[in-house]
Amino acid sequence: MDVLDMTALEALRGLDDGEDDLLAELIDLFLEDAPARISSMRTAIAAEDWSALGSWAHSLKGSCGSLGAVHMADLCAKLEAVGRQGGVRVEAERWQRDLEHQYELVREALARERDTTH
Fold this sequence. Notes:
Elements (H helix, E strand, L loop, with lengths): L5 H9 L7 H25 L3 H17 L3 H15 L4 H29 L1
């Protein structure tokens, strides 16, 4: 499975009006914002705050999907479901570890994409 769905990135490139580099801006925003959301999810799991986990996972899922990070979005959906269903900590911790690993892959891939758009 590819780290990024290139069709999603191409669609965002197609929205670029030529004046601003929309894709680069969205990538930068994601790379700035995602680590805090991931950290908040880790904190919610440790506190067994399932409602917060579900909310954080839901918000990150949308960002992932819009940038083509489909596997990361899928992991967020799994964490969101764990949160919405009241949670099983061991399961949530496993998905969280997978999410953190996938984020590193996505971060590297998006950084490469951003560098090629400049």
